[in-house]
């Protein structure tokens, strides 16, 4: 069998090189992590695992242009994330990536459909068009019948499915999820993660998922473990 040649592999869509994050703690520096380097190829699903406080969420924030690294380079979708202005970073998040948090952050005064349409409206999409696309995504996540309900009228699993639809309505290349099932019971968490897997596959996304759930991490293509300020790639099958 011939080895797979480089040109046969999908292109890199995320590249991290020499990444370091330092927080000030009084008069001392707290080094969260340093010299992190890794790549993610288009179409991969990468789980990011590690103990609480290891820097998983901070890493995702840096990749999503929500925070800045202390040193190092980050490229997402060929964009040098660290060099973006605040306005350019907001546009990058709106158009190129979709983010799902542990808490749904739905706007309570708006319906599910309006919440999903919001990123399109921010882009300047006409209201009827945005609402039509939002309806399509609510149908995709199995919530078409709940489109006119407000966030408080939805269950936790439904709220998270609305948040997922909102993250994907703009057609991003990269999905970033920070503990997307962390607030859900086991049965609902399984349903939401299975939905993420299906949408990842059907829409050919590249997905970066921070999770404490090692069972879910084992179902990803690759696993990156943060530990004592360093990053190590481990086999999904070896997680325990």
The total number of structural domains is 1
Q: How far is the first residue's CA from the last residue's CA?
A: 32 Å
Give the rounded overall mean pLDDT: 90
* Elements, N to C (H/E): EEEHEEHEHHHEHEHEE
The percent of residues in helical segments reads 25-40%
Return residue spans where pLDDT drops below 50 for at least 5 consecutive residues: none
The multimeric state of the shown protein is: single chain
The number of distinct helices, counting runs of at least 4 residues, comes to 7
Largest sheet descriptor: 6 strands, mixed
Derived structural class: alpha/beta
Over the alpha carbons, how many angstroms does the gyration radius reach? 18 Å
What is the fold-level CATH name, i.e. the topology?
Answer: Rossmann fold
CATH superfamily: P-loop containing nucleotide triphosphate hydrolases
Defining key terms:
single chain; 240 residues; alpha/beta; Rossmann fold; 6-stranded mixed sheet; 4-stranded antiparallel sheet; 33% helix; globular
Write a structural description.
The two termini are 32 Å apart. The strands form 2 sheets. The chain has a 6-stranded mixed sheet. Strands 2-1-4-5 form a 4-stranded antiparallel sheet, covered by helices on one side. It has one domain: P-loop containing nucleotide triphosphate hydrolases (Rossmann fold, 3-Layer(aba) Sandwich), CATH 3.40.50.300. A hairpin with a 2-residue loop joins strand 4 and strand 5 (79-80). The chain has helices at 56-63, 86-95, 112-123, 127-140, 156-168, 186-202, 214-218, and strands at residues 12-25, 28-41, 45-50, 71-76, 79-80, 97-100, 174-178, 206-210, 222-227, 230-234. By secondary structure, it is an alpha/beta fold. The protein is globular, with a radius of gyration of 18 Å. It is built from 7 helices and 10 strands.
